[in-house]
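Re: pyridoxal-5'-phosphate structure - here you go.
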Amino acid sequence: MFIGSPYESECDLISPNRNLTPITTEVDEKLGMMIGGCILTDLASRYSTPLYVIDEATLRASCRAYKKALKKHYPSESLPIYASKANSSLALTSLMKSEGFGLDVVSEGELLTALRGGLPGERIWLHGNNKSEAELRLAYNNQVTVVVDNQHDLDRLAEIVPSGGKPARLMLRFTPGIECHTHEYIRTGHLDSKFGFDPDDLKEVLFQIKDSSWAVLNGIHAHIGSQIFELDPHRDLAKVMVDVYKMAMGIGHCIEDINVGGGLGIRYVESDDPPSIDSWVLTIAKSLTQACHEADLQLPRLICEPGRSLVATSGVTLYRLGSRKSIPGLRTYLSIDGGMSDNPRPITYQSLYTACLAHIPNGTRDQNVTIAGKHCESGDVLLKDFAIPKASSGDVLVVFSTGAYNSSMSSNYNRIPRPAAVLVNQGQADLVLRRERPEDLLKYDVLPERLIEVG
Ligand SMILES: *Cc1c(COP(=O)(O)O)cnc(C)c1O
C-alpha cells in the first residue's frame, strides 16, 4: 500500500519527500515492519518508547537528490545548506557535513551544534530576527556568515567587530512579498512578516553597508515559507531576488551568493502531493538563470536551504499503545506513551500523519480510533479518526514522517522526559540522542533556602 517509494522505477528522480515511509521500509510476514534493516518492535524493546528512528539511507538519498539536481540544472556553482532547526544534533550535523552540505542555524545552541559537529564557519549561516549579542559574537569569531535581518543586527555587529578587525561576512535577508498557500504560522515571504528587511528599505540599507568598513556583504537571502506544494512562488522568488541582486551590484557590492531559502513540502498523508526535489530545483535554477541573463548579470552561487524535505521522511516515531476508552456511538481513544511533547505539530498546526502497527503494518484496518497523547490537554491528539487493525495494549505504533520539527520542537510539558533517537542503517542501530530521565528535568531547579521547611 503506502510502503516504500511509489516512484522507484524512476530511479533517477528518487525524491524521498514524496514517499510516506523511509526508502528502506520492508515488511516481513513474521517480524513486521523493518526500517534500515532493523525490526521496529526490536528497537522499541531495546531502546524503549517513545523512540525517534532516523533512516540514514533516506537522509542521504534526500541530500544526494538536492546535490544532483543542482549540478544538473544550474550551470554555475551551487551549495545546498541544511536548515538545522528542522532537527539539530551532532549526528545530523556530521551526516550533512559528509554529504557536502552547509548548515543554517538560528541560535547559539544550533550554532554550537554545527561547530562541534565539525562544520567550518565558512559553511554556516546564522539567521534570526532577534539575534543576541552572544549569538553574533560566536558567529563573528568563527567566520560564520550573519544573515542580517534588520537594523538591530547591523547596530549590534558594528559594536562587535573590533576596529581594524576582519570584516563580518554578511548576507542580507529581505521580505520578497510573495504569497503562498501554507499554514499562516509558517508563511514568511509575504510583506507582513517579522523576518527580513522590507523591500522599500533595501536601497538605503545597501548604501549603509557599503559605507561601513566593518562589513562585507556577499549574499542576499529570502525564504517564503514551509511545506509548500506549489512551484510558482519559487519561480517568482528567483526573479524578485535578481532585482535585488542587480540593485546591490549597482551600489557596488560584490554579490556572490543568492540564497533562495527552503520550503519544499513533503507527503505526510496519501493525499499530499509535493513536487519532487528535482522539479523544485529545476524551477529555481531555470528562473534564476533566465532572470540573470535578462539583467545581464553573472550567475551567482545558488544556495538553497531545505529543512523539512531533507529530514522529515527519514524519521519515524515508535510509541507503545496503552489505555483504551470507548465512548459508545462516539469514539474510541487509544493512548500512547508520548504525544504533544515529542510531536507538537498536530496541536500547533493541525498536522496530519500516517501510521501503522509495527507487527502487522498491512493488517486490515477495520477499526476507527483516535490516537491520543498522555499529556493533560484534550487537544493532545496525534491522529484523529484513524483506521487501524485491531490493536492491543503494548502494541508498537509507528508514526511516519516525523524526522523534521518533532525532536527539535519537543518540550518537557508535564515534565515528561524527551525521547531517545537512533540512527539505523543496514541492520545497525546507533544511539544519537540519549533519552532524558526524570531526574534530568530537576537539574535546573533551585529551591531557595527559605522555602525549605524545617522539622
Ligand atoms: C525554516 C527555514 C528554512 C527551512 O524550511 P523548510 O520548509 O523546512 O525547508 C530555510 N530557511 C529559513 C530562513 C528558515 O527559516
